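Changelog entry: the MutS like protein record was regenerated in this release. Current contents:
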Amino acid sequence: MSLFGLLNKCQTPMGSRLLSSWIRQPLVDIEKIKRRQKLVTLFFQNTDVRSKLRDDLMRGLPDLEKVSNKLRRGKASLKECVSLYNFCQRLPWIKEALSEVQDMLWEDTKVKDDSDIAMKETKEDESQNKSEKDVQNEYNLDEMDVSGLSPFQILERQFIKPLSVISHNFHNFSAMVEKVVDLEKVTTQREYLISATYDEVLSELDKKLRKVDKEMESIRQNFSALFNTKNNKDIVTLTYKNTYGWHLRVPMSTKGLKDLPSTYTKLASAKNGVLYGTSALDDLSKQKQRVMSKYNQRQDAIIKKVLEVTTSYLPVISNSVQALSHLDVLLSFAHVASCAPQTYVCPKILAMGSGEMIAVKARHPCLEMQDQLFSASGSISMDENKNDLNSDFDDNVLTSREMGKCVSNDVSLIAQKSNFQIVTGPNMGGKSTYIRMIGLLALMAQIGSFVPCEKAIITVVDSILARVGAGDHQLKGLSTFMAEMLETGTILEAATSNSLVIIDELGRGTSTYDGFGIAYAISEHIAKDLGCFCLFATHFHELTALANTLNGVVNKHVTAYKDDEKNQLTMLYKIQDGPCDHSFGIQVAQLAKFPKQVIERAEQKAQDLESVTKRPKITLQTFAQVRLLMTEFDEHKKKSKTETEHNEALQIFKQKLSNMCEKNQDLDSLVKNILSGGTVEMIP
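Regenerated structure tokens:
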């Protein structure tokens, strides 16, 4: 399920299109976000009115954007006019339902300010006198300034007042359709025709057609009377073919076909019956075709004029699309929040640059809507059959240990403290889910939606830049690593200090050393030079050392429990502070039912490499810091004239070195190793 699929509970096609546009272009204006939030809250709290609007009034509305496009291209027909007419009939009911919400607000508000009272007393006639041009300029919902207004006032200005004006402007159009179009035939026969009573010429031609039809029916009845059927069943029908015109059709199995009078001429035989004609019927058929030709010409001329008039309503249709699509999306947001399996809340929105993004018990919005994939215990036995695992089983499909509930996690991104988070942990542990969840929370908040958590504070970001997944582009000649580098390069070029950057396992498409070097350099650039919100999921555990040297960098890890005795791995999916130095890759290989000898060989090689890597290592940067400290000590020692000054310099050196060791565990191990006569390995 995608975010669009989750939020798209719109009842109209135009609402779905607008939602797609909102997701691709989230807001950065905090006032516009709050305006949407107020309206979503309003519909969220009024369940009955929301259901009435969605289920009874919005559902089945015509696609006004398609109607508008056909009118512009000159491809419209009476069907589009009738669709627009049906929409006009719904408008007063939609406005009335919105007024119910407004009345509830009015009753619930104990203290009403003067502006609300004035707005309540404003008469509809004042708005109805506005021209279509005024409506188009005043009711541009994307640019409407409603800052500082109450929900009552926003509802009035954004929907009730515009819909009143739109309904008034469509009044003459509705009257035209009722007068010109034969709405009875639309209802009963689904035919879109001009009413014969509207035009004198059409009326006369209609009378002639009725007279011809009556005479043709008389011939049919006389022909039918020649056959004796059970229960006097009428088996003769009048049908039309280009070859014969109007003719009589009778089933081939009918008795007495050979004894018919000579006035009836057999025209053809077919599986569906025998065709007969008469000279009188042939004359009537030709007469009817001539009258129908004149009727259609006259009707087409009238339809052309009707469509010309309808096209003049394009500005009003555009306003209708804007108002109804906005309403549809906001109702969808409220519906999703009210029907979610767990709590959705309205996030507190902070201005761009505030440097704070917090969520309590946050959940991945799409994940919690998935069917349960694992057992309720949350444990995965390594002896279970591989077929029990979902074929799409990966890091971003997780379930809770509590009967299928999605595991929630707290989020805290604070500028200069924890804005850059390095997320480590085992495969399938939930790293990707966690970092994507934060991106989705920010996106949902900036389009005006509620978010899946118990509390949320979201700082507006100017962009959400993500590099997740892995795959090549064969048609473009790009390898997996090259595609990864191009995407990352674009992110580094576009990111600002107000961006949210999400990077998932960068550098896995090349050698370990090259991948680590690139991941380290990019992480350092983002943390030091950009200082934006960043979530960096990785299996390069050496990256966690950045937390010791750069402000704002913190380590997070996803938890898992390994029971060696039961040969069982349990994913806990909880985010905790600190780094993790185990990826449990071999355990995942066991889950995938690798051959036993392969697993044993992998464990042996892993132990060999681990024994090498356990030797104390320090980075060049740490080495440079120690070298600088020693240089300072040498200078102090040279300047020392007495033994007391020498001891003081030595004490300062020891204290500084001790402080560095407290902050850097690798350096502490290095010092102890040197004192014990061991060796040291330098890493870049």
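Residues 3-170+313-339 form a domain with the MutS, DNA mismatch repair protein; Chain A, domain 3 fold (CATH 1.10.1420.10).
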